[in-house]
What we know:
Blueprint: E1 13-17, H1 20-30, E2 34-36, E3 43-48, E4 51-57, E5 67-72, H2 77-86, E6 100-102, E7 105-108, E8 111-117, E9 123-127
Parallel strand pairs: 1-4, 5-9
Antiparallel strand pairs: 2-3, 3-4, 6-7, 7-8, 8-9
Amino acid sequence: MKPTLLATKNALATVAVKNLAKARTFYEDTLDLKPVEGDEEGVQSYRAGSSTLLVYESTFAGTNKATSVTWPLGDDLDTVIRDLKAKGVTFERYDMPGAKHDGDVHVFGKLRVAWFKDPDGNIFNLGNF
């Protein structure tokens, strides 16, 4: 059986925000993401490593109660958390089966992860994988 075309194509994360102009401050100044040139109103793409994060205006912004974007950081996890905290980012604390807490990090054996929200309530994840 021939694989579907999607199996060979890159995907991108898409995040809804209420006000793109206000969101740009968080995405560009706090997260240090670099905008990608574009001319579509109400839409801004950002480069995140070799992938793209598409941010767009929507009345449904912040209604997702699950993780929207994950950054696998490997050994840089603690450095990134420290840098984001210095910029005012607050990390979430969840009570999850099997999780231990090490400051802002949830520990599941060797797996270490942390979650935070953008100003619209979208949930982002950082991990040591």
